[in-house]
Amino acid sequence: MRMTCPLCGARDLREFTFRGAALARPEGDDWNEAWHDYLHLRDNPAGESREYWAHAAGCGAVLLVTRDTRTHEIFAVEQARGAGA
Amino acid sequence: MAEPMLKAQNALPQGEALVLGDTRIDVLPMPRMTSLMPGPGHAALAKALRKHHGLDLPDPGGRVSSDEGECLWFGLGQYMLIGPAPSPLLAGAATLTEQSDAWTSVLLEGPLARQVLARLTPLDLRDASLPLGATARSEIAHMMGSLTRVGSEAFRLMVFRSMAQTLLHELKDTLEAVAARQAL
Ligand SMILES: [Zn+2]
User: Fold this and answer.
1) Which of A80, B74, B112, B161 could lock onto A85 through a cystine, CB 3.0 to 4.6 A?
2) So what's the pLDDT on residue A41?
3) What is the ipTM, given to two decimal places?
4) Which residues of A touch B (CB under 8 A)?
5) Are B62 and B115 within one domain?
């Protein structure tokens, strides 16, 4: 699998580190089911998935990647900075 | 009591480390090196760098050089000023950090240079994606480093000084292997 970093161009997967699913952060600071879900419960999507990846061995940017977990097809890669991260 | 003087020193003995198949591994002199981190937005730094050092701020993957020195793109929100001592007037536009002895620079030059690197980095080293003057942050023998095409057959490699010996060892081993294949 190769990913196209918006800064560096197409790069080999080994330069990137998976940083987890991109989830909407719950409102408020009080503990509730939404926070439990956000912190501990993960779907295992077969299909389109939004994930954070760090270009750790490259430019250092954290990226928001939309891809298909079944085919490894990549739909979009953008910088997480400014994308609500 | 007198302040002890600490002098920055190159992590490796400077000069030629190995020549095989007309391809050389050379430890470069340690230049004055300062990282420039402008934070969000880099317009102020671009203006200050032009004014005080006559250098343009490079785009991602780029390098701008003049007789006075060099400014190298060094990752997200980070540039390396190589050569001149930084003007204190840059400090209003970026965080400046002295890096001279923090990185080690090695030149790999010759007809086998690209074949050697092909064994050590996942980068596409062909002219179309890494033309003369282009720079990249990538893995070099599993170490995070900076690689700049400084000649048609010449590449400057930089890694943290703590990994200097490992870089030299990997380069020598790989050049030996590539040269041995060539001689078959
Ligand atoms: Zn990148």
Assistant:
1) A80
2) 94
3) 0.88
4) 7-12, 14-15, 56-61
5) no
